[in-house]
Every structure is written in structure tokens, then in C-alpha cells.
Amino acid sequence: MTEGLLSASAKDDNGVFRRLADDLLQGLLVHSDYAPLYANPAASAILGFDAPSALVEAGSLKPLFPEDVRERLASGRGQHNIRVGRHGGGAALLDLRVTEIE
């Protein structure tokens, strides 16, 4: 019975996280080597996508992040001011915080 309660609690936590993240004014992007796993609506708008699902389905976001920017971000945690491309053209200036999750 305890296992079922823990599982239900984890599902509730995931739902709470998604509601909070989806309502953020700041963009939130979770990725693995630039393959998006989750994006909130703000992140998708900043990067030029119509919806978070379109960003996640796009595959690799490496083309939007110039090589020199990817090298800076590879250094790990920290705050960075960077210029990235936008899907469909143009550019965005980002004040970005990098946090690694293992």
C-alpha cells in the first residue's frame, strides 16, 4: 500500500511541477545534449516555436546555438548572456542560467 501512495505522490508532484513551469514568464528548457525533453510556453516563444510540443518535436536545437555558445555552456553551471538563433529566423538575446541534473 505504501508503494501505491508513493507512486500517487510522485504523479501529483509531476503535475504540480508542470503547472508551475507552464505558467512561468521565464523560459524553461530541459534537454539532453540539445535534444529537448521539456519546454514551457515561454521557452518555445523565445526560440520562435508556436508551441512547446513543436519545440520538443524539432529534435536537436544545436543549429540555434552557435558553436562558441555551446562551448561556453558546456562549462557547466552558471549564468550566461548569449545570442542564439530563433526557429524561422532572427535571433534572441538570452540571460541564461545553466543547471545540470544527473
Give a structural overview:
There is one protein chain. This protein is an alpha+beta fold. The protein has one domain (26-98). Helices cover 39% and strands 25% of the residues. It has helices at 2-22, 41-46, 52-57, 67-73; strands spanning 29-32, 35-39, 78-85, 91-98. The strands form two sheets. Strands 1-2 form a two-stranded antiparallel ribbon. The chain has a two-stranded antiparallel sheet with strand order 3-4. A hairpin with a 2-residue loop joins strand 1 (29-32) and strand 2 (35-39).
List keywords for this structure.
alpha+beta; 102 residues; two-stranded antiparallel ribbon
Strand composition percent: 15-25%
The number of distinct structural domains comes to 1
Oligomer: single chain
Largest beta-sheet characterization = 2 strands, antiparallel
What is the β-strand count? Answer: 4
Q: SSE order, as H and E?
A: HEEHHHEE
Helix content: 25-40%
Task: List low-pLDDT spans.
Answer: none
**Arrangement of strands in the largest sheet:** 1-2
Helix/strand/pairing category: alpha+beta
Shape: globular
| Total DSSP helices | 4
Q: Radius of gyration in whole Å, from Cα?
A: 16 Å
Strand and helix map with partners:
Layout: H1 2-22, E1 29-32, E2 35-39, H2 41-46, H3 52-57, H4 67-73, E3 78-85, E4 91-98
Antiparallel strand pairs: 1-2, 3-4
